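Class, study these two lines:
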Amino acid sequence: MSETNAPNTGLKNPFDSWKSIAISLYMTLVGYGVLVGIPVISTAWVTLLGFSEVEVGRVAGADLGGLSVGAVVTAIFIAKVNRRMLVLVGLSLAVIANALCISIVDYDQVLWLRFLSGLGSGIYTAVAVSCLGASSKPARAYNAMLFAFAFSQALEMHFLPLLSMSGIYTVFIVCFLITLAFIDWIPKRAPAESSNMAEVSDNKIVDQNIPAYVPWLCLVAMVITYINIGAYWTYIELAATADQADSEWVGQVLTWSSLCSLVGCLFATILSNRYGLLRPLLVTLITMAVIVGMLANGITDKNILISVFSFNCLWIFIDVYQMSTIANVDKTGRFASLMPGAQGLGQIIGPNMAASILGLNLGYSGVFVMCSAAALVAMSLYLFMYFRFRRKIPEFAYAT
């Protein structure tokens, strides 16, 4: 335990400490704050700063793209560098960038500042996700994280629209700074036995059964999934407003739909225990393609209710299944810190593709068709894995 400088809990794995799990959960909520709050933040950029719809896509892509870069940086250094130091670096970048955004409102400068903020958030978040992945029961830890997102997302959807742009940035700054009071709860390094586990074959992972490309393929599928999620979630409120949907109704739908995450966590666990991870994930991605594609014909108060409520429920389904699948094939936790990177990369591509579609005057119908197609492409990758391994390695194909 002295090697990790974690609180003395008597646990062999310091990442199983309730303090480590608690601070990691808090950090994921803060680090993913822009991601889950992007619909109202995007609207604020338009209404409060005067950005165009195309510019919003670029700024959102820069912010969430920085998240991806930060996660990759963390994955490179996390085994060699004190985790608390990484958190301090990420936290400092995010705080400085958000503070500068309060006084700087020029589009070109904001674009780079949001990338810097995302970079800091990515480093900060990747450490937290890696700590959860290094616990003895990572799937349960990720489920707890996604369960907590239901409440944080609802709070963001309700309170952020009530704030000025500087108020929104200030909230993020304060939430990051709170971490400093509890930074000692983060283990400095993984225990020695975890480091030894990382010495695996270049060709096989997990008892030499799973080919090494599988976790990478899972990460690629996660990127493609988040192209859909990033584009849809960035533009859903703006698209609804453009189609003359009642703005107050849309705001209420976005707030209350966040609680669908609770239902998603519950049923995702029940279904995975009965049917495994891959089969429910395939059905979920097909359903996701339908509920985002249905908006291509126009948005009404009725279909946005169905689409957004279903989207939030299925988003949690997908995250539970994807994160748990990676946890099952990568017991070293080596890929855990790359998951925010995969999500962030999808969040770069998705909003920027949507912005390009809007720039070509294809409208929001084109955006939602693209979102639906991305969900189907991700589904095809998991379908390949399912058919490839259901007989060869059934313990992977039917893993819970």
